[in-house]
Structures are given as structure tokens and as C-alpha cells.
């Protein structure tokens, strides 16, 4: 099934009946096929592909507006590189550029206004605890081109919750992220329920790390029973916000 974003693009550039596809339609179709191929590739670790049911990579990346030839900066991808295992081959085949900033301060080496997209996945709770959120958001705004996108995937706390209370459990609210982006001069451009999970009530003995993929079962003398472990596994991965911010042109 095509996403609404892709369907709209195809409709906008559709050729008259019986005519050859317009070049732009062909380009959209080619980009769509290239992204699907990168996601389905056997080069991705099996464990990565098993998580697609929870992280919806195709839908998320098309919502954020990924396109061939972009310069994409991923913040703290870590050693496993779940997103980078998709982004690197996809961008390489279209002469795009992938930049991994495993420490946010490495952005000092990224030129002002050079990135089409900055991707942040599951990091705001850690930044809040370290008092880093505003400084890092300012850096993201600096490296983005005018019109560039900040793409966010983040464990979601209930609206109105106190980040001092929720961040240690791995969650922050959408309002927290939106306010931080706005302070950096970025504008909310879209929000999606692609990665929502109504089964996640956020009431877990070891925070979000109780759930897959971490599946923590013991901490500070507390151990889950086999029945509890099965219950948390049945929740799946966390309820997550999926947000798109844009740097004003």
C-alpha cells in the first residue's frame, strides 16, 4: 500500500491516460523502489528487520521526506546503527551523504546550513537528564539548510507530564520536544501516529527498557517472573511520537 505522501506525489505528476509517465513520476517511483530495497535488503541484520513491525521504517522515512541525494545527519546512531543500516546504502546509491554524529558535540565539524535532514531517534530523555536539550537543538538548527527537516522518533510520555519524572523512565512528552524545537527556531511541520502503541501504558518496573528490544528483566534486586516477562513482551516496543520540524526558509 502506498503512503498518502507518495500517493499525493504520484497524483500531482500523473500523466494523461495513454501517455508515457512524466519524468518526475518516474523519479518518484524509482526513489520509492530504492528505499523499499534498502529496507528489505539481506545486508541488514535479521534482528533489525524483525523490528520493522514496530518502527515502520518506510512509512517513517517517507513521512519525514527522505529523498535521493540528500545530506542526512543522524544523531547518536550507536554501534548497532538501526537507521544507518537503511540510510547509508540508500543515500550512497543516489550520491547522497550520510553523516553519523555519535556524540552530539561532533556537530562542530558539520558546516552551517549543510544538512537536508537531521534525524534524532530515542534520545531526548537522556538529553533532558543531562541538561543538553537546548544546546543540541540549537546545533541541529545551525546545520540544517533553510527548509531542512529535523526528524524525531521518541518514546512518548503523556501530555502534561513532568519531564523530570518521566525522562528517567525513558519518556518525554510531545510538548517537551516541540517547545525545545521552537526555542531553536524550528517549526512543527507534521506529526504522525505511525509509531503509536496504545498497549504501552508506560508503567514498567525498569522504565522503557523493560520492553523489547532491551527486555531488561532484573535491576536493583527486582526480577520479573516468567509471566511478567511475557506480559511486557506482548506490549511490543514503546509508544512513540513521530514528528517533523522544518527550518524556516
Reconstruct the topology from this structure.
Layout (H helix, E strand, L loop, with lengths): L3 H9 L10 H18 L5 H5 L1 H4 L1 H8 L6 E5 L8 H9 L4 E5 L13 E7 L2 H7 L2 H11 E12 L7 H4 L7 H10 L3 E6 L25 E2 L2 E2 L2 H10 L4 E7 L3
Parallel strand pairs: 1-2, 1-3, 3-4
Antiparallel strand pairs: 4-8, 5-8, 6-7
Helix pairs in contact: 2-6
Keywords: Methyltransferase, Signal, Transferase
Protein name: Class I SAM-dependent methyltransferase
GO molecular function: methyltransferase activity
Structure, explained:
With 249 residues, this protein is α/β, with parallel strands linked by helices. The protein has one domain (52-246): Vaccinia Virus protein VP39 (Rossmann fold, 3-Layer(aba) Sandwich). The protein contains eleven helices and eight strands. The chain has helices at residues 4-12, 23-40, 46-50, 52-55, 57-64, 84-92, 124-130, 133-143, 163-166, 174-183, 226-235, and strands at 71-75, 97-101, 115-121, 144-155, 187-192, 218-219, 222-223, 240-246. The strands form two sheets. A six-stranded mixed β-sheet has the order 2-1-3-4-8-5. Strands 6-7 form a two-stranded antiparallel ribbon. Strand 1 (71-75), helix 6 (84-92) and strand 2 (97-101) form a beta-alpha-beta unit. The chain is globular. Mean pLDDT is 91; it is low at 1-15.
